Amino acid sequence: MTQPLQTVLDYRTRLDTAVTSFSRYIHDLCPDARLEISFVRYETEDAHIWITSPATMTEDQRDRLSSQVAEKSIDILLSEGFLILAGVEDPDLMNP
Predict the structure, then answer these.
(1) Which is it for strands 34-38 and 84-89: parallel, antiparallel or unpaired?
(2) Contacts of 36 (CB under 8 A, 6+ apart)
């Protein structure tokens, strides 16, 4: 039996759902974080989420958040097939 082809609309709907779920997960971990989301594709990447942590967050807390986000990204890749890259940025480095 042949598999039906995935349409662009199906792909985008599934990707939007995965990115929304991932964003909510990040906000549950760190409600004061600022997220910037991009759907621009680079090679095999499906989306990107840049996370700017609050200025009150310590380096250890940022490292912990970064690890949790990386694990979730891998979970999404394995379960949904989407490569959503996410990184935690230090706000002090953003505003010299």
Answers:
(1) unpaired
(2) 49, 50, 52
The residue to which tokens 């792909």 are assigned? 11
Instruction: Pick 86 or 9 by higher pLDDT.
Output: 86
Chain segment 15-30, per-residue pLDDT in tens: 999 999 999 999 999 9
Domain boundaries in the chain?
A: 35-96
Q: What is the DSSP string of the chain?
A: -PPPPPPHHHHHHHHHHHHHHHHHHHHHH-TT-EEEEE---BTTB-EEEEEE--TT--HHHHHHHHHHHHHHHHHHHHHH---EEEEEE-HHHH--
Query: Residue 26 in contact with residue 49, Cβ under 8 Å?
Result: yes
Q: Which residue has the higher pLDDT, 42 or 73?
A: 73
| 81's tokens | 């097939």
Confidence of residue 87 (pLDDT cuts 50, 70, 90): very high
